[in-house]
Design brief:
The protein is of the alpha/beta class. The protein has two domains: 115 residues, Leucine Aminopeptidase, subunit E, domain 1 (3-Layer(aba) Sandwich), CATH 3.40.220.10; 321 residues, 3-Layer(aba) Sandwich (Aminopeptidase), CATH 3.40.630.10. The protein is 35% helix and 20% strand. It contains 15 helices and 19 strands. The strands form four sheets. Strands 6, 7, 8, 9, 10, 13, 14, 15 and 17 form a nine-stranded mixed sheet that branches. Strands 2-3-1-4-5 form a five-stranded mixed sheet.
C-alpha cells in the first residue's frame, strides 16, 4: 500500500537518526569527531522537535531528529518539514511500536489541506521496508476528519455528509438509511426543528454494519452518534462575527463518528455498528426555530428553547433516543458541543462524560496508550436545576454555570438508565500550527476511541 508521505521501498534514502535527550551524549560520542563538532557548533542537544542535517563528502549525508516520547506519533511529526525534500530511512532498527508511531507521526506531519490551495513545498518522505497497515488506516481516518472539518460549508452541507456516509457504506458493505422530509419531522421532530430554516434540508443518517458476519456469535453492538451541524450561525440568538468565523467545524462530531466507523470497518473489527449523524444547518430565516418555543423530541420529552445557539444537544437528543431503541451494548457520541469545555480544558483535551465508570476508565486508559488523551468531567446531577423549564419537561440551556456539564446532563436525559454511554465534547480544531497538528480541523479523541473499541472487540 502506498501513501504520498512515504517513499517506495526501492528508493534511495538518507539515514535518519532518532535521538532523545537522555541518549544524545552517548550517540554523539559514537559519531566521527567532525560530526560531533558540527553538532556542538550548532548547539544541537536533541530537544524534542529539533533537527540537524549531517554533512558528508557529497553534501548532506543524513540527519538527526530530536524526539521525546517515542510512542507518541507527534514526537516525529516535525521531520517532514524540518528535512529537505527527498527520502529518509531510520538509521537503526526500531521496535514495532516505535516504528508504527514514527510512521503515523510522519503522515500526520505531512498533512496539507490542498482542496483550494497547493502546498508551498513537498514534505520529506519516509522510507520503511514495510508499512504498518493499521497505522495507515489510523492516518487515513485522522486525515478524513481534518479534510471534512476544513472543507467550507458550501461543499460540506447535510447532503455532502450523506454522500460521505453513502461512500463508506458502499466501500464496506454496510447499509445506509436516510430520514428526511415529513418522516423526519414526524419521527425526529427536534432534528427537524433545528434544521428547518436552511435551504438544505435536515436529515438523519443511519449507517449499519455487522463486522461479525451472518450466523456468527453475537458481536458487541456499538452505537456511534456524531453532531452534524454543518454551519452554526447561532440561529436567532445569533453569534458575533468572531464566534461564527470557524463554524464550518461544527460538524466535527459527525466527522469523528464517520471516520471512526470507517476505521472500524477497514480494520474488520468484529463489532456491530449503528452510526447516527443528525445533519443540519442552524440557519437564519423566516422558519428558524425561536427562543421560547417548545420542541417535541423522539423520546416524548418536551424541550423549551432557551437559546437557539445550544442547538447541538437538541439534534443529538433525538439521535440518542433512536440509538437506544436499537438496543446497543454501548453508545459513544462525539460533538463540538460547548465553549465551556474549551475554557475548562483548552483545545487539546476533549471533555469526556460517562454514566459508566468502567467505560470512562477504559477510554481514559486507551487515550494514554494511544497518546490521544481525553479528560473526564463529572455528570454532576444537581446541576440539572440549571435546565429547569416552567413550561416544558426540560430547557436546552439556562445558565452560564458549568456549561459543558449541563450540556452533558441534557444528553444523559435521553439515554436509558443502565445503557453504558460516553459523550466526548471535542474541539476538532487546532488554533495554530504545531508539528503534526496543523492549524484547522483535527481528530481529537478518534484514535483513543478506536483503541477502546479494539480492546472491547477482543
Amino acid at each position: 500500500m502506498s501513501h504520498p508521505a512515504y517513499a517506495r521501498t526501492e528508493s534511495t534514502a538518507l539515514p535518519l537518526h532518532l535521538v532523545d535527550r537522555a541518549g544524545y551524549a552517548a550517540w554523539r560520542d559514537a559519531q566521527p569527531p567532525a560530526i560531533a563538532a558540527w553538532l556542538e557548533t550548532q548547539g544541537f542537544d536533541a530537544a524534542p522537535g529539533s533537527a540537524a542535517l549531517l554533512p558528508g563528502a557529497q553534501g548532506v549525508a543524513g540527519a538527526v531528529l530530536g524526539v521525546g516520547d517515542r510512542l507518541d506519533p507527534c514526537a516525529y511529526a516535525h521531520g517532514p518539514n524540518a528535512l529537505p525534500d527527498g527520502a529518509w530511512r531510520p538509521a537503526d532498527t526500531l521496535p514495532a511500536a516505535e516504528r508504527a508511531a514514527l510512521q503515523l507521526g510522519w503522515g500526520l506531519g505531512s498533512y496539507r489541506f490542498e482542496r483550494y490551495k497547493a502546498a508551498p513545498r513537498a514534505p520529506a518522505r519516509l522510507r520503511l521496508d514495510e508499512l504498518d497497515a493499521e497505522a495507515l488506516d489510523l492516518l487515513a481516518a485522522c486525515m478524513r476528519v481534518r479534510d471534512w472539518v476544513n472543507t467550507p460549508t458550501q461543499d460540506m452541507g447535510p447532503d455532502h455528509l450523506e454522500a460521505i456516509a453513502s461512500e463508506l457504506a458502499s466501500a464496506h458493505d454496510a447499509q445506509l438509511e436516510v430520514f428526511t422530509g415529513q418522516v423526519l419531522e414526524q419521527e425526529f421532530p427536534a432534528i427537524h426543528a433545528v434544521g428547518r430554516a436552511s435551504h438544505r434540508a435536515p436529515r438523519l443518517l443511519a449507517l449499519r454494519w455487522n463486522g461479525a458476519g451472518d450466523g456468527q456469535a453475537r458481536p458487541l453492538h456499538v452505537a456511534i452518534v456524531g453532531k452534524g451541524v454543518c454551519f452554526d450561525t447561532g440561529g436567532l440568538d445569533i453569534k458575533p462575527a468572531d464566534g461564527m468565523r470557524n463554524m464550518k467545524k461544527d460538524m466535527g462530531g459527525a466527522a469523528h463518528a464517520l471516520a471512526l466507523a470507517g476505521l472500524v470497518m477497514a480494520r474488520g473489527l468484529p463489532l456491530r455498528l449503528t452510526v447516527l449523524v443528525p445533519a443540519v444547518e442552524n440557519a437564519l430565516g423566516p422558519d428558524a426555530f425561536r427562543p421560547g418555543e417548545v420542541v417535541a423530541t423522539r423520546k416524548g420529552v418536551s424541550v423549551e428553547i432557551d437559546n437557539t445557539d445550544a442547538e447541538g444537544r437538541v439534534i443529538l437528543c433525538d439521535a440518542l433516543a433512536y440509538a437506544a431503541e436499537q438496543q446497543p451494548d454501548l453508545v459513544l457520541d462525539f460533538a463540538t458541543l460547548t465553549g465551556a469545555a474549551r475554557v475548562a480544558l483548552g483545545p487539546d483535551l476533549p471533555a469526556l462524560f460517562s454514566n459508566d465508570d468502567a467505560l470512562a476508565e477504559a477510554w481514559l486508559a486507551a487515550g494514554r496508550q494511544a497518546r490521544d488523551p481525553v479528560w473526564r468531567l463529572p455528570l454532576w446531577r444537581p446541576y440539572l436545576r440549571y435546565l429547569t423549564s416552567e413550561v416544558a419537561d426540560l430547557a436546552n440551556a439556562g445558565s452560564r454555570m458549568a456549561g459543558a456539564v449541563t450540556a452533558a446532563l441534557y444528553l444523559e436525559r435521553f439515554v436509558p438508565e443502565g445503557l453504558p454511554w460516553a459523550h466526548l465534547d471535542t474541539y476538532a480544531w487546532n488554533d495554530g500550527n504545531r508539528a503534526g497538528r496543523p492549524a484547522g480541523g483535527e481528530a481529537l479523541g478518534l484514535r483513543s476511541a478506536y483503541a477502546l473499541l479494539k480492546a472491547r472487540a477482543g
